[in-house]
Amino acid sequence: MATRQTTAATTTGVRDAVVIGGNRIPFARAGKKYADASNQEMFTAALDGLVARFGLQGERLGEVVGGAVLKHSRDFNLVRESVLGSALHPATPAFDLQQACATGLEAAITVANKIRLGQIESGVAGGTDTVSDAPVAVSEGLRRALLDAQHAKTFQARLKALAKVRPADLKPLVPATDEPRTGLSMGEHQAITAARWGITREAQDEIALASHQHLAAAWDSGFFDDLVTPFRGLTRDDNMRPDTSAEKLASLKPVFGRSLETPATMTAGNSTPLTDGASTVLLGSREWAQAHDLPVLAKFVDAETAAVDFVHGHEGLLMAPAHAVPRLLARNGLTLADFDLVEIHEAFASTVLTILAAWEDDDYCKNELGLTGALGSVDRARLNVAGSSLAAGHPFAATGGRIVATTAKLLAQKAAETGRPARALISICAAGGLGATAILESA
Amino acid sequence: MTDRYAQAVNSGFTKTLAKKLGLPRPAILRRHRAGDPLTVGPVLVLADAASKGDADTLAQTLLGWDLDVRRDPHDDLRWGAVVLVLTEAAEPTAVTEPVLATGSVLRALAGNGRVVTISRAPADDDTPALAATRQGVDALVRSLGKELRGGSTSNGVVLTDDVEVAHPSVVAALRFFLSAKSAYVDGQLLRVGPADAAVVDGTGWQRPLEGQVAVVTGAARGIGASIARTLARDGATVVCVDVPAAGESLATTANAVGGTALQLDVTAPDAGQRILDHARERHGRLDVVVHNAGITRDKLLANMKPAQWESVVAVNLAAQLRINEVLLAAGIDGLRIVSLASTSGIAGNKGQTNYGFSKAGVIGHTRATARLLAATGGTANAVAPGFIETEMTARIPFATREVARRIPSLAQGGQPVDVAEAIAFLASPVAAGVNGQVLRVCGQHLVGQ
């Protein structure tokens, strides 16, 4: 029996936090267009694009919250430094947070909650990540020697400290995305989960193909004209393959789960590539938006995070959103059928599929989630309709901002088309067995 | 984007050498800086006998601007400007005395000096002698422009018969021509009609667009970015528009001017509505639209591919027409539309049949739109730049570029800000009397009017 937690309703006694708009830079494949760009440059660019779009030059915002997953030690105050380098008023406070791939959404939750409580009137949530400009640490032996030499009082003592360095100490420690507690990469973890749920290669490739087609269609229709500002000559996400096909995807060799007994199904095509990029979302109270003549796309309704014990338990590393969503729905009195749009971060195509399968599984929902039966199905026509991480790429901390801004705009469009309110569910899995989810409604 | 030749002949040893060799020496043009005096020296106001009353009126206006105004050409001064008032001259011989008096002070005209004529436009019912006198001023101004040295220019304000010399738009046009804002405008005559215009005085000249909302297309870089900066300097809130692909530079411009960036392809069918909606929803109003976005796809017509013709016409001409339709339907009071034409749209240019057609088309629709806007106090005007130093013209082959630079009377290319200043003047409320005009910013290029 899983631990079923229900939090007290948080929707009473607070005011609305609304999504006004967003801005990101196009996402770039690692080592390509942004190979020389730092996290600070990228986040500043994303911020400046947002400022330009909404005319916020010299504006003192309530707070800017964001972060990076792969972060240099010199970037200890990354978001504040980015604010200082942007066109925002220098008296705009800022802080860094980090929750792996959920960083961006967690930032949005934080800003929205501060607004809802009346602590701030406006804020920017965001994130940035670069795999190309990732921090490289030195070996423990070299680090010790350098610190000792730094502290040495005499020249001889300094020489003595440095003399301790051995050739092997000169090999740098390149950052890895392996889970520290299991030594397995995220892909290997997910391969185990996918195999357990019997997710087929074909189903995964289908998700990947839809992602590229949806994203390309959105770009072609001008959907991203007010969501993305070009950076360093890149005007569109360069990971996107508008011309890919089921055949092309089927021809790729599996890269994860090759040591498993079941056939390996996860390829470079249905797994997200390493990506560089940054994103931002502008939130505010309704009053602030109105006073600044700014549009309101959606209301940030509620959020729920979860974590799973993937180390000692039997749950998959990326399954935490499966746990968070039922709690979120219960608190808000909603079912999966109540959502016009569902955004599930495509860490891997199989992540999306295992989460969907889990919610449709009677036993799993009873035994793992403590529900009375299956949570339900998601209408595929409502899933990731403007493409998601598989096509756009996934600069870890930047993904939440991309999804929140895209979803808010989709909701506004949907409500305008149908003349009735629209609602969206956002689900993002993260390393460490973490997951963050949220509900947005058209404003 | 630097004119190395002009720099060389104006400094150090190469200056001495250029003088000795008698090489053409393009002057360093004086450009507007806040706080600088309006003119480089005293202003001499001359008139024919019949126009003395109008000259007195204008002299009073100039005195109100704290200028040193004189009426006697025999004063031994280094003149900053000559204002030649010929509004009531009825026959050719009437202008002889003031014109020759002007000539007598030209050697004493300071560098970056100004000669500005104030005259009347020929009308259909003019007698032959009156028509001759009025038309004569046209080429008097242009010929004089070709004689002036040291960055000095010659321009004229031409009043229709129903306009008093004290009309705010006449005064504003005179001030523009006297100022450093018209540094690269030479040999041009600007017609002023009778529209109502608010009087500007005192500090009103510093921020004529205060409280107004202006849209500038193609604002990401070059001339567009300069227009955005200049309009913002004059007090406008600027909506900066450019294609999504230019978004990075567009954001830089928008942040520099404290405006908003609207990533939009002006050829999109709904571009006009989106511009109008953005301006009204985000800034509450729309007062000025500058159609600056434009492209070149140069090719001899014999080699021209359909896409090269079509894209140039679509961006430079059709987009402006479609956006203007939305603006006209919106019935905005006092709307100012300023479009970018080109000297290529007046004189034509080899390899630019597509560009020339589109820019001449701009002149055509500007005149027609001007009539439609007049009823609501609005205006439509065009600015026709000549050779302007931009990233685009920096790509022209060296020899061609060098020739293009030396052909104008001012013997140099203009700066983007020169175009921007002309646009800012035409966009200002006080310029209401200037409607359907094409103002060339070309340093008096040889060809065309």
Automatic annotation (TrEMBL), chain A:
Any one GO molecular function term: acyltransferase activity, transferring groups other than amino-acyl groups
The keyword Acyltransferase appears for this protein: yes
Domain of life, source organism: Bacteria
Keywords: Acyltransferase, Transferase
Domain Thiolase N-terminal: 18-286
Catalytic residue positions: 101 (acyl-thioester intermediate), 394 (proton acceptor), 429 (proton acceptor)
Domain Thiolase C-terminal positions: 295-441
CDD domains listed in its UniProt record: thiolase (cd00751)
Signal sequence, start to end: none
SUPFAM superfamilies membership: Thiolase-like
Gene Ontology annotations for the cellular component aspect, listed alphabetically: cytosol
Protein family membership: Belongs to the thiolase-like superfamily. Thiolase family.
Protein name per UniProt: Acetyl-CoA C-acetyltransferase
Organism whose genome encodes this protein: Isoptericola jiangsuensis
TrEMBL record, chain B:
Signal sequence, start to end: none
InterPro entries: KR_dom, NAD(P)-bd_dom_sf, SDR_fam
Ketoreductase domain location: 212-391
SMART domains the record matches: PKS_KR (SM00822)
GO MF annotations in UniProt: oxidoreductase activity, acting on the CH-OH group of donors, NAD or NADP as acceptor
NCBIfam families to which the protein is assigned, alphabetical: PRK08261.1
Family affiliation: Belongs to the short-chain dehydrogenases/reductases (SDR) family.
Protein name: 3-oxoacyl-[acyl-carrier protein] reductase
Organism encoding this protein: Isoptericola jiangsuensis
